[in-house]
């Protein structure tokens, strides 16, 4: 800390600024002895902090401080959630209120000391978090608390939590709990309602034979819980860029509100860590970004994060089940939460050797003879921050893969990366249950095999101990597929993913032969996936209307925000011809609808979702109503181009258009998108370009329709967007955080990047000292705290 004190003071003097905030400690101040903290903060344009510290504790301190400055209410509310106190502070309508259910789930994890146990063991970053990461977490908490103590709850400028009793100092345990909740987002947290509502049948009657639930119902019930997240990403190699350097497009589609918003920052411990990018609010480490020679992004993977175990129950005792012919008692735990005016709410929850008992009504029910438990393989994932930390220290994509192999930490995402040598990497290197083909064949009952083949949802025979997940010899933890069983591809042209499976990361070299639980292969791709590949192929061929061939970061940005609507490119002309031939159609409610105006609006539609595009919302509503139905079939030998012809003989096509017209009553069918498709910042309505993925839009923006009004509030879509080139003189390119850096309406960084996004603008990559120093809005200050 003494050396850091000198460096921070020197940095402030060199920058020619007045140091604000806490004084820079002197070398004799005793920081090292007292375990104090200090960090240099340089706020660049749009409020983006560049944080430098002498160690990871100081770095975490700086991150905690600036994130509290910008988003204290988001972090404080997230801590309320993971503390099982939502119903206490935000109210509950009754014992089955959503806040109560959330509290029961999180209170169960607290009572079981889930986080405490994850911190036990050797601090090697695999069996438990390393000292570097623990220091960073400790520093983050200290930085947040330092801001809160200096500001005071009553003086917080964000009205969302000013003066609220639920805003309190953090503990390190609080932040580990928020991390754990993020890990299980696509597993047990997605099944939260089914865990807290799982109750044995009132009377244990005779056991009935279990039937396989309807596959479509299962997928709808489970996948709906993971809605609201997605992404696009490109990793471009030497043969795809004009310079021969690697290049990465990051385009995650995440919520525009709440704790799953990204936060831009640049973090540096000289000689040890130097990464620019973004993290989810409340996380102290860069999760999508770049260092000097390698960049990466993530997309949500199709792999499943949990498996089911069908339990054969003991007759007359529905809380006991057989394993290898012997009865085994479920573990019952009574969990109690304080639900505000509703008082204390208690519920008994049940666990098995495999994990919690879960009920999905009508699909996985708890009967006298059968119950279902899940194994969530991310429930023990304590490796994530170490994994992202070491990714940030990798020199190239080969080293990055070695980090992935060792830590196996990505909870539910793919990785797409490229390096300065011009090599690109795709991998679904996420945490995936170890359901090999052999295990699936031997342990998934015949009645459940179609469910597994169709959706990857594995239901294993829980009455056999040999049907447990087991362990791959190269896996970082029991129960997950090891690196040898995971799809990985290195390329010198490109890799891509838009939330379909691994299969077409590069169509020239499909990834095939992997366990079904990871994702499907040789099947139809989404319109967004097809457009993502088509955009690359057209750019490399020089047929996309942009100058030249191959990518620069400028061309990559223009491609991303070209705002093509691929579904409309394929079917619009046939749809217009159909409705002109048959202008009257019957809507789903039986009403007759005149399609004449809709036909003409679609005929003038420019097949884009730009602010001046007319009729784009009409096509989106048509797509959401299920109107894109193809006449031709998928051809595995031409997966990017098929299917492509509208089935004009299918009556559901015209019905979907009639339904779209009805839904848009009161809104002009030929309105400009920017007039009706907006996001609100205070009293401002900012026009927002982009559109629905269901229509085949790459730049996804999900903005629900308000009848008679339009689309006034974005809930999900493009968030942190980065187009970065890893050049000889360092990284360069463009980036933006679409919803801006702060959730505080009184912050100067509440709407600035949103307005920038509206006009397709960008902020530049600012990684080198020269790039940072050139920022005209740079403001420098030091935050520091003595130990206690």
TrEMBL record:
Picking any one GO biological process from the record gives:
antibiotic biosynthetic process
Region forming the signal peptide: 1-22
Query: Which Pfam family name is an example for this entry?
Result: Penicil_amidase
- Give the UniProt keywords, A-Z: Hydrolase, Signal, Zymogen
Fetch the CDD domains from UniProt: Ntn_CA
- Quote the Gene3D superfamilies the UniProt record gives: 1.10.1400.10, 2.30.120.10, Glutamine Phosphoribosylpyrophosphate, subunit 1, domain 1, Penicillin Amidohydrolase, domain 1
- UniProt superkingdom: Bacteria
Listed GO molecular functions? Answer: hydrolase activity, acting on carbon-nitrogen (but not peptide) bonds, in linear amides
Q: Name the InterPro entries on file.
A: Ntn_hydrolases_N, Penicillin_amidase_A-knob, Penicillin_amidase_dom1, Penicillin_amidase_N_B-knob, S45
Sequence similarity = Belongs to the peptidase S45 family.
- The protein depicted here goes by the name Putative cyclic lipopeptide acylase
Phylogenetic lineage: Bacteria, Bacillati, Actinomycetota, Actinomycetes, Micromonosporales
């Amino acid at each position: 800390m003494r050396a850091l004190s000198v460096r921070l003071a020197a940095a402030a003097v060199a920058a020619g600024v007045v140091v604000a905030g806490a004084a820079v400690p002197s070398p004799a101040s005793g920081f090292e002895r007292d375990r104090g903290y200090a960090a240099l903060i340089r706020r660049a344009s749009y409020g983006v902090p560049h944080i430098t510290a002498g160690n990871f504790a100081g770095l975490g301190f700086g991150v905690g401080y600036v994130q509290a400055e910008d988003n204290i209410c988001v972090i404080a509310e997230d801590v309320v959630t993971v503390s099982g106190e939502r119903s206490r502070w935000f109210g509950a309508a009754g014992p089955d209120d959503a806040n109560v259910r959330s509290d029961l789930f999180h209170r169960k994890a607290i009572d079981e000391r889930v986080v405490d146990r994850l911190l036990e063991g050797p601090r090697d970053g695999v069996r438990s978090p390393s000292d570097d990461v623990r220091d960073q977490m400790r520093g983050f908490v200290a930085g947040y608390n330092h801001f809160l103590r200096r500001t005071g709850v009553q003086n917080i400028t964000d009205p969302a939590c000013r003066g609220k009793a639920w805003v309190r100092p953090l503990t390190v345990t609080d932040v580990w709990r928020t991390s754990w909740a993020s890990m299980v987002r696509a597993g047990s947290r997605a099944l939260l309602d089914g865990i807290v509502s799982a109750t044995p049948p009132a009377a244990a009657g005779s056991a009935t034979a279990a039937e396989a639930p309807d596959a479509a119902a299962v997928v709808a019930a489970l996948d709906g819980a993971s809605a609201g997240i997605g992404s696009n990403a490109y990793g471009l190699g030497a043969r795809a860029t004009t310079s021969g350097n690697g290049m990465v497009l990051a385009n995650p589609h995440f919520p525009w509100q709440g704790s799953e918003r990204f936060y831009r920052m640049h973090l540096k411990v000289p000689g040890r860590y130097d990464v620019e990018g973004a993290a989810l609010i409340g996380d102290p480490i860069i999760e999508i970004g770049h260092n000097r020679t390698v960049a990466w992004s993530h997309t949500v993977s199709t792999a499943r994060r949990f498996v089911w175990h069908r339990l054969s129950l003991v007759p007359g005792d529905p809380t006991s089940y057989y394993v290898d012919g012997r009865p085994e008692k479920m573990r019952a735990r009574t969990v109690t939460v304080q639900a505000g005016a509703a008082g204390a709410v208690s519920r008994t929850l049940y666990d098995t050797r495999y994990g919690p008992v879960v009920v999905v009504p009508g699909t996985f029910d708890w009967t006298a003879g059968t119950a279902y438990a899940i194994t969530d393989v991310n429930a023990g994932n304590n490796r994530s921050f170490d994994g992202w930390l070491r990714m940030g220290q990798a020199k190239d994509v080969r080293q990055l893969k070695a980090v992935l192999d060792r830590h196996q930490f990505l909870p539910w995402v793919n990785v797409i990366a490229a390096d300065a040598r011009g090599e690109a990497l795709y991998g679904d290197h996420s945490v995936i249950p170890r359901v090999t083909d052999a295990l699936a064949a031997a342990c998934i009952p015949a009645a459940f095999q179609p469910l597994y083949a169709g959706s990857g949802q594995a239901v294993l025979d829980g009455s056999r101990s040999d049907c447990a997940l087991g362990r791959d010899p190269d896996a970082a933890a029991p129960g997950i597929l090891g690196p040898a069983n995971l799809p990985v591809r290195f390329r010198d042209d490109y890799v891509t993913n838009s939330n379909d499976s691994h299969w077409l990361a590069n169509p020239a070299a499909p990834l095939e032969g992997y366990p079904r639980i990871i994702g499907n292969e040789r099947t139809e791709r989404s319109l967004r996936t097809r457009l993502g590949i088509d955009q690359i192929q057209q750019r490399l061929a020089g047929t996309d209307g942009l100058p030249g061939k191959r990518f620069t970061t400028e061309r990559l940005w223009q491609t991303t925000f070209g705002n093509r609507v691929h579904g409309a490119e394929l079917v619009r002309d046939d749809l217009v011809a159909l409705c002109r031939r048959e202008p009257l159609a019957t809507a789903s409610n039986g009403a007759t609808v005149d399609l004449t105006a809709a036909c003409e609006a679609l005929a003038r539609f420019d097949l884009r979702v730009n602010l001046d595009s007319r009729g784009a919302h009409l096509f989106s509503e048509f797509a959401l109503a299920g109107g894109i139905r193809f006449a031709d079939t998928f051809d595995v030998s031409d997966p990017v181009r098929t299917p492509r012809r509208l089935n004009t003989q299918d009556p559901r096509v015209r019905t979907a258009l009639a339904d779209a017209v009805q839904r848009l009553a009161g809104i002009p069918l030929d309105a400009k998108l920017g007039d009706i498709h907006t996001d609100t910042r205070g009293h401002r309505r900012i026009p927002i370009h982009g559109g629905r993925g269901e229509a085949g839009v790459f730049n996804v923006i999900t903005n629900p329709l308000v009848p008679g009004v339009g689309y006034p509030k974005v809930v999900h879509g493009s968030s942190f967007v980065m187009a970065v080139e890893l050049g000889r003189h360092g990284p360069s390119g463009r980036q933006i955080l679409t919803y801006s850096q702060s959730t505080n309406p009184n912050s100067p960084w509440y709407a600035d990047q949103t307005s920038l996004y509206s006009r397709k603008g960008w902020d530049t990559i600012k990684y080198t000292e020269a790039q940072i120093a050139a920022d005209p809005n740079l403001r420098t200050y030091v935050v520091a705290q003595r130990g206690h």
